[in-house]
Amino acid sequence: MFEQFTQDARQTVVLAQSAARRLGHHYIGTEHLLLGLLSQPHTLAARLLVVRGLDLAYAETTVLRLLGTPGLDARDADALGTIGIDLSAIKEKVEATFGRGALDRDPAHTRAGRFAGGGHIPFTKRAKKVLELSLREALRLKHKHIADGHLLLGLLREGEGLAAKVLAEAGIDFAQLRADLDRDIPAVPA
Fold first, then answer.
1. What is the mean pLDDT of residues 119-131?
2. pLDDT computed for residue 165 by the predictor
3. Would you state the pLDDT for residue 154?
4. Residue 35 covered by a domain
């Protein structure tokens, strides 16, 4: 399937994997594909999102907020605060030393090195569905390639993953974005 991807679409997948690693996630989800698209400001998909008010920084902040911090909630932080422990300060220090998301990583994967610095990170079922839907979108438009715009169409069509939630929170009109993508995706890859 990836042989039909344009260079920008392939780069989106590479950048999605980088985003997953940077955030300490052991999977590539729809949110990582969205971050991969936004990491390439020169592409059609990124330009259409940015003009609607969704940039990489906002998207990443929203992803982190929606995912939350596994294992600890506000009640835990409050309880620790009563005995003089500032959980957010500890988290900042740990992440400054070990990298962003260090407290969220699965220690077994980090020990094995499987996801810590290299190797394959698996796609979630939803992310795989987005890739499949991007192919369907390309076929619907009678294109013989899959570009970044087709990936964004796939995210819109999937419509239920974390990427869709980020898009919705940004106030993006899915139907209008879809229409703009249909109009602007070139029939021949750039």
1. 87
2. 92
3. 93
4. yes
Contact 31, 12 (CB under 8 A): no
| Residue 107: pLDDT band with limits 50, 70, 90 | very low
Measure the CA–CA gap between 118 and 63, rounded to whole angstroms: 23
**pLDDT beyond 60 at 117:** no
Q: Indicate whether 175 belongs to any domain.
A: yes
Q: Could you tell me where the DSSP H helices lie in the chain?
A: 7-22, 30-38, 44-51, 56-67, 74-82, 87-98, 107-112, 125-140, 148-158, 162-169, 174-184
* Structural domain includes residue 165: yes
Q: How many domains does the chain have?
A: 1
Q: Which residues form the domain of 142?
A: 2-69+105-184
Concatenated DSSP letters of 119-161:
S--PBPHHHHHHHHHHHHHHHHTT-SSB-HHHHHHHHHHH-SS
The residues with which 130 forms a beta bridge, in sequence order, are: none
**pLDDT value of residue 144:** 86
The reply to whether 87 falls in a domain is no
| CATH code, domain carrying 178 | 1.10.1780.10
Using N-to-C axis directions, what is the helix angle for 74-82 and 87-98, rounded to 10°? 110
pLDDT at 111 over 70: no
- The whole-angstrom separation of Cα 147 and Cα 121 is 22
